[in-house]
Design goal:
The protein is mainly alpha-helical. It is built from nine helices and six strands; from the N terminus they run αββααααααβββαβα.
């Protein structure tokens, strides 16, 4: 499920300010959003409008919606980081408060990731084709562009967009399953240990089967306890690279030449630290 190359690509899409403890992330889809919005403003001002422009307006709206979902995910992780920091400061290791509220972040994180993936689907479609009228109100979800989809959108996707979607099958089905469990099914989501030990968790289904077992994401080898910082950084890298590759592909199909003009500044230093840690662990194990 984990691919070291993804972390290395993601590292090129960020810059770190160690003095301010901030990380700035960029991706091509954000750049396309900015350029497309400015272009449509110029077209509207000139009174130019045709069927292609209408599709591009829908695309711009879909990009705006995705941007909001990305901001949600960023804020969720920053809030979670703050919550753990305050719990460590207040020494609430044994407080029921901490162990009651902390698992809610785990649930909401998976819901935010799922919302982002669903927000990507209309962008994939609108790069080369129109939305059906009924889908302009209730937008298609990511499942509508996957190989098993019976909808016509999938069969009309060009090869490059289809390949970008299908590469997500390496990790998305597992994450989607966890999202469905924590949102709809009988389950347990537990946070372990005192907060000073780290962000440690696991999700269990109704049969008490742990759902996340990738060795490199675990807190300690041979245990089922997951290091959330590693887990979140793995998914962040996958999402960031997905947005960048998708931006490049959609720009090609819509005839836009990309320029780097957008960025997201965050306090998510643990993301970058975890990338290096995971990469080092995997490469070291491969050398043995």
């Amino acid at each position: 499920m984990i691919k070291v190359e993804t972390f290395k690509i993601a590292q090129k899409l960020c810059s770190v300010n160690t003095d301010e403890e901030t990380v700035t992330f960029t991706n091509s889809l954000d750049d396309l959003h900015a350029q497309l919005s400015m272009s449509l403003l110029s077209l509207r001002a000139a009174g130019l409008k045709n069927l292609t422009h209408k599709r591009l307006e829908l695309l711009a709206n879909a990009l705006s919606y995705l941007s909001l979902r990305f901001i949600d995910l960023t804020l969720r992780l920053q809030l979670m980081d703050w919550f753990w920091y305050k719990a460590c400061q207040n020494k609430t290791q044994d407080d029921l408060f901490f162990h009651a509220y902390a698992p809610l972040f785990i649930k909401d994180f998976h819901i935010d990731v799922s919302s982002m993936m669903d927000a990507i689907a209309p962008i994939v479609i609108l790069a080369t084709q129109d939305l059906k009228e009924e889908d302009k109100i209730r937008l298609p979800s990511f499942s509508d562009v996957l190989p098993e989809s019976k909808r016509s959108y999938r069969e009309h996707l060009p090869n490059d967009l289809r390949a970008i979607v299908d590469e997500r099958l390496r990790w998305w089905p597992n994450v989607k399953k966890i999202r469905d469990i924590v949102a709809h099914r009988d389950h347990l989501k537990l946070v372990f240990g005192p907060p000073t030990e780290g962000k440690l968790f696991q999700v269990y289904d109704q049969k008490n089967t742990p759902q996340i077992l990738d060795e490199v994401l675990l807190y300690k080898s041979g245990h089922n306890v997951v290091n959330f910082e590693k887990y979140a950084s793995f998914l962040w890298a996958e999402l960031l690279v997905l947005l960048d590759r998708l931006g490049q592909s959609v720009a090609n199909h819509t005839k836009y030449t990309l320029q780097q003009i957008s960025s997201h500044q965050t306090k998510l230093m643990f993301i970058v630290r975890s990338w290096y840690e995971i990469t080092r662990e995997i490469e070291s194990s491969n050398e043995i």
